[in-house]
Amino acid sequence: MYQTNPFYLAVAVGGGAGILTGLYIFFRRWRQQRLVEDTPAARIRSAAQGYVRLSGRAQAADGKALRAPLTGRRCVWWTFRIQQRGSGGRDSMPWRHNGSGTSDQPFLLIDQGDHCLIEPEGAEVEPSDRKVWYGNSADDIPPALWGGFLFGFGQRYRYIEAILTEDTQLSVLGELRPATGSTTNTIADEAAALLSRWKQDQHGLLARFDANHDGRIDAAEWETARAAALIEARQNMLQQAPEQRLCVLARSRDKQPFLIAALSAGQLARTERWRATAGLALTLLSLIVTCLAIAHVRSVVAGY
């Protein structure tokens, strides 16, 4: 009677899981690479409704940027995770989930004065900045020093935060459709787009709203500018035809990938290609390991 070494059985099972994981990564990333490369670039002004690829700058929808919850950085989108180091037992994970969150606040994509609203819920996001750092509390979170490049020796918690900053250039693949929100939200979006255009002309902005002539726009003067933008947006809305109103870029109803990336289309395609290659490499490596483990088990059986 022979007894199979449980180590080689575990290796074979792990190798099989690695094969399936690698194949999933490969086909998913390969499909997304093909979509990025094969979906024609469109302009917001002329894009047809449906699945599209757009590019432009990210801006807060109401003129006020979000604040990332862990670091307080200004952004239009954020996500974070807090992980706790495992106890070190045989069945424990190195890091356990302790808390997480992702913003779902819509923000604007602006391209040469035209704009659409992005609803990021359900999107796969390539952030413009990501930080990882360590500490000893889930509530009293330490600063993300030196860009988060700390190894965390002796630290109990790991903090991970990613953001999309304002004015970052984005490539987005998703479904473009008419906005279904309220008129109030649409006016706020139009006002935010106006403010963004005004900010590009600092001389005109100062001439119009720098009431104390100190060469900068302070908080009170910025509120005056926001109020003027709302008034102008409301007037523009009354003059618009219904088909000219704001469109929304969101998750596709037919399960097509919804990608938001702080990369150019070419960079995004290369990133997906490398990830597909990594998935294929994982598949081949797992296949080799599995075959070696099975060969060892068979040689043991043959010896009896």
Features:
304 residues; alpha+beta; 5-stranded mixed beta barrel; 4-stranded antiparallel β-sheet; 5 helices; 13 strands
Set out the fold topology.
Blueprint (H helix, E strand, L loop, with lengths): L5 H33 L11 E11 L5 E2 L6 E2 L1 E9 L9 E8 L4 E5 L2 E5 L5 E3 L2 E7 L21 E8 L4 E10 L4 H18 L1 H8 L9 H21 L7 E4 L8 E3 L3 H38 L2
Parallel strand pairs: 7-12, 8-13
Antiparallel strand pairs: 1-6, 1-11, 2-3, 4-5, 4-10, 6-7, 9-10, 11-12, 11-13
Describe the fold and architecture.
The protein is an alpha+beta fold and 304 residues long. The protein is built from 5 helices and 13 strands. It has helices at residues 6-38, 183-200, 202-209, 219-239, 265-302, and strands spanning 50-60, 66-67, 74-75, 77-85, 95-102, 107-111, 114-118, 124-126, 129-135, 157-164, 169-178, 247-250, 259-261. The strands form 3 sheets. A 5-stranded mixed beta barrel has the order 1-6-7-12-11. Strand 2 and strand 3 (74-75) form a beta hairpin. Helix 1 runs antiparallel to helix 5 (265-302) and helix 2 (183-200) packs across helix 4 (219-239). It is elongated.
What is the gist of this entry?
The chain is built from five helices and 13 strands.
- SSE run: HEEEEEEEEEEEHHHEEH
Mean pLDDT: 82
Number of helices: 5
Main beta sheet strand tally, sense and closure = 5 strands, mixed, barrel
How many angstroms separate the termini? 7 Å
> Low-confidence runs (pLDDT<50, min 5 residues)?
none
Q: State the helicity in percent bands.
A: 25-40%
Bin the strand percentage: 25-35%
